[in-house]
Amino acid sequence: MTEKYITVVGVGHYFGADIFKVGQIIILRKDHDNKQDDEAIQAELETIGKVGYVANSYQTVAKGTRSAGRIYDTFDEECIGEVVFIVKDTIIVKVVPEEKGTSADE
């Protein structure tokens, strides 16, 4: 299965990038109430709550990562990611495949 990476942005609107650490687990949860984006996926830390969103615009998706729209249909309501890079206010996260093996590869 191909590894999937996503970009978490908007962290400055919440707690900033300083709360993130490489190797940290992030919960990626579909945000059905988001009026601006039908494919919005919020990023959450278990002890804090919402800390940003998966980028879904060509202007914010880091090169080599996937947009929220590209991964939206690959999981039910939530999935897990692991922080792999932190660059300024941009967090690069590796999407962890579901144990069941029912996720789509692309």
Beta-strand residue percentage: 35-45%
Number of strands: 6
Number of helices: 1
CATH topology: Alpha-Beta Plaits
> What is the class in the CATH system?
Alpha Beta
Rg from Cα: 13 Å
Which blocks of ≥5 consecutive residues have pLDDT under 50? Answer: 101-106
Structural class: mainly beta
By oligomeric state, this entry counts as single chain
Percent of residues in helices comes to: under 10%
Largest sheet: 6 strands, antiparallel, barrel
Q: Please tell me what the overall shape is.
A: globular
Please trace the helix and strand order, writing H or E for each element.
EEEEHEE
Number of individual domains:
1
Task: Give the overall pLDDT as a whole number.
Answer: 92
Can you describe this structure?
With 106 residues, this protein is mainly beta. It has a single domain, classed as Alpha-Beta Plaits (2-Layer Sandwich). 4% of the residues lie in helices and 38% in strands. The chain is built from 1 helix and 6 strands. A 6-stranded antiparallel beta barrel has the order 1-4-3-2-5-6. It is globular.
